[in-house]
Amino acid sequence: MRQLILAAALALLAHGAAAFEVEDDRVFGTGVGVEISVLSTTDTQIFVPLIEAFLARNPTLRLRYVVASSQEVYRAIRDEGVAFDLVISSAMDLQMKLANDGFAAAYASDAVATLPAWARWRDRLFGFALEPVVLLASRRAMQGLEMPRSRRDLIDLLRANPARFNGRIATYDPHVSGAGYLFATQDARQTDAFWRLAEVMGRLNTRLYCCSGDMIDDLESGKLALAYNVVGSYALTRLPNAPDIVVIEPEDFTVTLLRTAFVPKGAVQGKLGGMLLDFMLAPQGRALIDGVADLPPLDQTALAPHLRPIRLDPGLLVYLDQIKRQNFLAEWDAAMTQP
After folding, report:
1. CA–CA distance from 314 to each of 48, 192, 298, 318, 320 (Å)?
2. Cα torsion at 312, 317, 318, 319 (round to 10°)?
3. Structural Rg of the chain based on CA atoms
4. For the ranges 14-23, 32-41, 263-272, which has the lowest average pLDDT?
5. Which H or E run includes 33?
6. Which residues contact 275 (CB under 8 A, 6 or more apart)?
7. How far is residue 140's CA from residue 61's CA, in Å, rounded to a whole number?
8. Any idea what the Cα angle at residue 99 is, between residues 98 and 105, rounded to 5°?
9. How, if at all, do strands 62-67 and 35-40 pair?
């Protein structure tokens, strides 16, 4: 993996940008035509079926797929001006910030016109997958205990069993994970129980992570018993080979994010980036994305009552204000670092 990341960094150096950190960098297709470049927070294996289907339709093309964290995606576009043809991220607030600040090009097509109003922002930012943010539990670790169905249940469970869960709970570190910061602030907006839960987790030496995949790895290995606020699709892709993991959508409410995409200004192959976006929104593309993980439909009227989609609008920018961010993180740190 270290060699792969080094190769990715060297490849980006050749394109005039290497300051942002890359997790994966792969080229798909054998076509002799132009290359589409995609910058994404979504793990490569989740997108492979869609990429292969897109290239089967367009065999003269190649597709470069670069994976980075949501904060690094934001930095690559905003601060470094790296040229990509499509930008994909699970951090809706950072995507909205980029679009609102003029880094997204206008794009219109029949495919994006079919999106509901809450899943698009003007003609700049588009949702293509709706993903619940879930609680994961280990069956082995929970043996003899009832699975929590809500945040209130989870608080009671942790308070009643501190020895079992001490050092064995995980969640995102909102200092380093843009998606984790988004989920935490959305939780805090929905319920006061979030801060009670944070205090209980802090007393039990909760481990903080950058990425869903790392949490799931440690849950599978037995290092963890619970992982809170994990992107559900990452867990669902593991379930066939991880029978110990239980996915729980909290019944009080389940924050549901829109994974979004935009064509950046300055894209070398912006029209082709738009063509890939259209394919993602078309029936075949949606079926391929949904086939990897059982994702809810973009039709909000068909959603279960406990799912609470984060609306794609400038309200996402509230917690990106530097003072609000500093205050929120200070309160978070106080909850997580109790004596």
Report:
1. 32, 23, 20, 8, 11
2. 110
3. 20
4. 14-23
5. none
6. 58
7. 47
8. 120
9. parallel
- Alpha carbon distance 63, 204 (integer Å): 45
d(CA 190, CA 173): 19
Report yes or no: 317 and 85 within 8 Å, Cβ to Cβ: no
Domain ranges of the chain: 2-130+258-307, 131-255+319-336
pLDDT above 80 (res 9): no
Are 111 and 278 within 8 A, CB to CB? yes
Question: What is the Cα–Cα distance from 288 to 259, expressed in whole angstroms?
Answer: 15
Task: Give the model's confidence band at 28: pLDDT under 50 very low, under 70 low, under 90 confident, else very high.
Answer: very high
The strand pair at 62-67 and 86-89 is best described as unpaired
Q: Class assignment of domain 2-130+258-307?
A: alpha beta
Residue 11 has pLDDT above 60, yes or no: no
The C-alpha angle with vertex 128 and arms to 186 and 63, in degrees rounded to 5, equals 125
Closest CA relative to residue 259, chosen from 45, 10, 91: 91
- CA 188 → CA 247, 256, 275, 328, distances in Å? 22, 14, 37, 10
CATH of domain 131-255+319-336: 3.40.190.10
Distance CA 56, CA 181 (A): 37
pTM, 2 dp: 0.81
The count of other CB atoms within 10 Å of the CB of residue 333 is 12
Higher pLDDT, residue 2 or 254: 254
User: 188: burial class by Cβ within 10 Å (0-12, 13-18, 19+)?
Assistant: middle
